[in-house]
Design brief:
With 206 residues, the chain is α+β, with helices and mostly antiparallel strands. It has one domain (50-195): tt1808, chain A (Alpha-Beta Complex). Helices cover 27% and strands 31% of the residues. The protein is built from six helices and 14 strands. The chain has helices spanning 3-16, 23-32, 52-68, 129-133, 135-140, 192-195; strands spanning 37-40, 43-46, 74-78, 83-85, 90-92, 96-100, 105-108, 111-114, 119-123, 148-152, 159-165, 168-174, 180-183, 188-191. A six-stranded mixed sheet has the order 3-6-9-10-11-12. Strands 1-2 form a two-stranded antiparallel sheet.
Length: 206
């Protein structure tokens, strides 16, 4: 038996042993877990840690939005708040969410999960960028409440805003520190200079 065959059979055996969880089982585990995990289609996936730049950007956005929403019927949430896309069964932790109006929560196994964000922000990481742009956005588009989806690069100045217009999502890009991100769904604005405050970009390769 070749080494390749042994490795392939080991991988198949490992895959066969993977546990299929129900949402209730996932939430019970997540309630006491030390690290956050995402859930979809019966499987639990540990969420990778984030870089200091990622954390700085998400924190900057959360603070700026929270200040603007302080006296309004809206609330900003940072990544410790879990989201459920009811129609697809995805449970995940967006970097920043805002709900305007009443926040609706699913309550299972003694834990609460948000159901109706108005706006979602994801800070892009090298390992998750493709997922955030494609498969994850496909899930998010199934949220009837969602009006805007914002992607923020952490290795360069670039913010991409997708705005729902009927059945379509219209892209607007902001590429300069002098630009200001407009968020009409929640009536907020955030200058890119403030989004990227204290962020150090990695030096470009020659």
């Amino acid at each position: 038996m070749t080494q390749f065959t042994v490795q392939r059979e080991d991988a198949m055996a490992s895959a066969a042993l993977k546990t299929h969880y129900t949402p209730s089982q996932y939430l019970a585990l997540e309630r006491d877990a030390e690290f956050k995990s995402e859930y979809y289609d019966g499987f639990i996936t540990a969420m990778a840690g984030v870089s200091p730049e990622h954390n700085q950007i998400a924190g900057n956005i959360f603070r700026k939005l929270g200040n603007q929403l302080e006296d309004r019927e809206c609330r900003a949430y940072i990544s410790d708040v879990r989201l459920c896309v009811s129609s697809t069964g995805l449970y995940t932790y967006p970097d920043v969410m805002v709900v305007c109006g009443e926040a609706l929560f699913q309550k299972i196994e003694g834990v609460e999960t948000l159901l109706n964000p108005t706006m979602i922000v994801e800070v892009l990481s090298p390992t998750t960028e493709s997922y955030d742009r494609d498969a994850k956005f496909a899930h998010y588009r199934q949220l009837p409440s969602l009006k805007e989806y914002v992607l923020v690069s952490q290795d360069k100045v670039l913010v991409e805003r997708y705005t729902r217009q009927g059945d379509d999502w219209v892209l607007s890009e902001f590429k300069r520190l002098a630009d200001t991100l407009q968020l009409p769904s929640i009536d907020c604005t955030v200058p890119l200079r403030e989004i990227y405050a204290k962020v150090k970009f990695a030096a470009s390769s020659p």
